[in-house]
Each structure stands twice: as C-alpha cells, then as structure tokens.
Write a structure and sequence with these properties.
Length: 64
Amino acid sequence: MDKEIELAIKRGHYVFVKSMDGSTLTGIPEPSNDPGKLKMRTSLGHFWIPMDEVSHVSRLITIK
C-alpha cells in the first residue's frame, strides 16, 4: 500500500482510497512530514487520513 502511494506522489497519479468505515476518497497524494498520515488533495480540498484507517489504495493511471 505504501509503495503505491509513493509511486503516485512521484508520478502525480490519482489514488482511490477506501477507509475502514467504507468511505472512499479520490485525489492526488502529496508528501507528508507525518508518516502516519496520508495527505491528499481533492476537488473538495486537502485531507489528512490516518494510515491505520486506510483499508485499500488503488492508483489510477490515465492511458493516452
């Protein structure tokens, strides 16, 4: 899971994140000073998600 987030940060890919409570969020991950939290930029604003609440991460890749 961490590897997918790192690749998405490097390459500017979107990620789909599903939390333990079933809620989902799609956005661009950004580097964070806190390794225990995922920082994401979405159309709704910036979000900090604790990594222990994340159940699934998928990288969304645009094919040209």
